[in-house]
Amino acid sequence: MSLLVVGSVAFDAIETPFGKTDKIVGGAASYIALATSYFTPKTKLVAVVGDDFPTDFINTLNQRGVNTEGLQIKKGQKSFFWSGKYHTDMNSRDTLVTELNVLGDFDPVVPESYQDCEYLMLGNLTPAVQQTVINRLRKRPKLIVMDTMNFWMEVAMDDLRKTISMVDVLTINDEEARQLSGEYSLVKAAAKIQAMGPSFLIIKKGENGALLFHGKEVFFAPALPLEEVFDPTGAGDTFAGGFIGYLAKTDDTSFENMKNAIIYGSAMASFCVEKFGTERIMNLQEDELLARINQFRNLVRFNMASL
Ligand code: AMP
Question: pTM surpassing 0.70?
């Protein structure tokens, strides 16, 4: 099934307890599109960069089967830049710099060849732009998944609420779920957020896994305990890419299948954090991914006679 990805394609500068990078390629849609490319050969990208962005990375996306017809390259302008610093626990970070640059006046173009998309992944981006992409699709996709972050809650809450009301699945982290709902309990937060529109909500808890809510139903997936976490940047996006990629591949949007999709998303994210930036998810082998899925199976499987 064809899958449209929209989101930031950017430069990041990252500082973790293990090291520091100068400007490297990042951006929500970069991670998402790389992740979805392992599930479907039909990923289509809508994004914008400046002419400072490396063509090598665009070529890598193309080699992985990602269609970049909808990636605008703005002459004489700079790409979006984000810089963040992780705390020692790696579960929390501070944003040091957000320079919107080309994202400031991004007018997304949805090429004609993208109009058939059945799955839409709205990666982290200006909420009004996410909304424009939905509106520019003549036929509503079968499933719309949206990711966002606290930054947009602070600068564009009204637009954010409107976009949230238009999607089927929202993925956010626990802190953001509390900020968006005003509730500390994640169960109460989930009920309030579902009342805003999305019938499915995924709350990401970093190294503590992820929760999937749908009405009164809840599913929990752990994160894989890893020996080394090098850089968590993009883990949420890679998770989202694995999640929607698996749903598009299996073409089944039931709650039961979303449980499997969450495990695939978590497995993809577990690779992402092992190296800085997008490096680790550029060239994964299928057997590595399947081995991780099995590790997840073993992690939560136990035999207990019923009481
Ligand atoms: P994650 O670690 O999954 O939350 O995503 C990190 C990625 O999000 C980085 O590669 C950044 O370039 C990108 N990012 C950070 N802030 C924003 C923002 N306000 N809008 C869009 N993308 C962002």
Answer: yes
